[in-house]
Amino acid sequence: xxxxxxxxxxxxxxxxxxxxxxxxxxxxxxxxxxxxxxxxxxxxxxxxxxxxxxxxxxxxxxxxxxxxxxxxxxxxxxxxxxxxxxxxxxxxxxxxxxxxxxxxxxxxxxxxxxxxxxxxxxxxxxxxxxxxxx
Length: 134
What we know:
Layout: E1 2-10, H1 15-27, E2 32-37, E3 41-43, E4 55-64, H2 68-81, E5 96-102, E6 107-109, E7 112-114, H3 123-133
Antiparallel strand pairs: 1-4, 1-5, 2-4, 3-4, 6-7
């Protein structure tokens, strides 16, 4: 089992339900256990189109036996199940699921970069993440 941290966000209604549904589906992943969920925070969008709604964000601390690629594929599948469509970069979304850390692994390849390359620049990641590692 590998200790991982995930970032979750939603700015399309019902935001809270989208996040709760995603957490429920992550709990159902084979070989994965959710250890702790940070509190939800509301944040303004970073980048993307103007006039988007505010986000609800949180982070999860999990243990998983899934490989990084398999975890990513499962997260993308959950996004699709919850209605995520990718039409505009940094645009509105029902759910956004990101792998922030996967143990101590450093991975940099097309479609998968761990640690998440922009996590350190985003308050909506750092605030809930700090709650999980305190």
